[in-house]
Design goal:
The structure is a homotetramer of 134-residue chains. The first copy, chain A, is 18% helix and 38% strand. With 134 residues, the first copy, chain A, is of the alpha+beta class.
């Protein structure tokens, strides 16, 4: 599991006084930073060599999030496929699960625009964060 | 069907030279503006009377979106339930479907923090935009 | 003058029921799209050849912006220097000026990380949109 | 001085491989959270009682910010006026000042839509963070 704490911003609230539903999607992207490092260890961040593309996101909003308290983002790997893997996220505030959901990331070659197998090295690293293993 | 055209912003690109995956979620929220008007016709936009809350979003990224061309967002109602309804979105660029997905909106009373039935008037309005009807 | 119309998004409001102050900065970036085309006409959008970097922004918030109405962004060139130029923006809603301000863009070589003179061709194009000329 | 550390997000980069210029404005808003608490100590966050509105922002982009490293935001009060005060921000990455700038916040009554004097209590709290005092 990866954890990070995010601090809500005044403008993250909407006029309902809660955090707008587009905000957790951005927090979850931030929480996937460890996968950037895992798949691009030198952080070259060049299209020619960067190997991940987003295929699917789905999020359940199970309780309202508010500005007043920090939010803890917990992140696991929930599936390791041949050419893709799924990341599972939870956003907690004051001991309450508020948002949960998944993002499917495909191992991808931006030069050929084709998906490619997840390399063995990264497969091992992903396994260390498997939801089932914990 | 509702349609709107959005123009990508320079900062919507990430370092891969395509539109970052968090951006269409924001465009789809914009494309749901007609539902704001449908359920809050005078646009009072007060927590005491505003009746919608987001319960679920899921988006499939089927082709890359780029900065160079406008994007057309097409929006339908795909399901009308007792206390919620589902909005279905597609993002098209240069004749190609790039992102598709759904958002489940719950009819909600922010005072009691309970879901409530979709009123008949709004139910009729939603039906006019049913995906199956077109 | 360049003009574009932007539609406020529900999440652009903050809990004060007005558009959050970070939002017009994003709209103004969108309104600078014509300068992207002016300086990178083929929209190659590559770091090796893209010639603009942001040096300074300043915005005055003179009236509140609301969700209920479209916003018109008006954009001029207010200064053409040797190696930089200034863009002047106004955001209008319902006939009222709500935000005005400037962005200083430097002609820049990302390979050498040095500012470079604005080419004569672009200088002519910028002149066509000079605030004083209108 | 207030300090906070922010972690760049993949989508905060633009296609130039650096952090897009609209991003530090959002970080600076986050860094102003202590002023929210200072002026709305119970965090009621209601339009009827919240007393601050943004009047002006200006930011100088003096060096490029990158994804690879955390960013430290340092925040001071640089001016205390009768009905407004100015916040001064700096964004540092790897020991280098990258962005600096100011935000002018007006003490404001959203009911009457008039500026009002900064109360003595808050004036004292602001003084503790005066740039000149350090």
């Amino acid at each position: 599991m990866f954890t990070m704490t995010v601090v809500p911003r005044f403008g993250d609230m909407d006029m309902l006084g809660h955090i707008n539903n587009t905000v957790p999607a951005v927090w979850f992207e931030l929480a996937r930073n460890p996968f950037i490092t895992m798949f691009d260890p030198e952080l070259r961040l060049k299209k020619e060599t960067f190997p991940l593309i987003m295929a699917h996101t789905e999020y359940d909003f199970v309780a309202q999030l508010y500005f007043q308290h920090d939010v803890e983002i917990r992140t696991w790997v929930s599936r390791i496929g041949t050419k893709s893997f799924t990341v599972y996220h939870e956003a907690w505030q004051q001991g309450r699960l508020c948002v949960k959901g998944s993002a499917v990331m495909v191992h991808y070659d931006f030069n050929t625009e084709q998906s490619t197998p997840v390399p063995d090295g990264q497969r091992l690293l992903l396994k260390e964060h498997l939801l089932q293993a914990e």
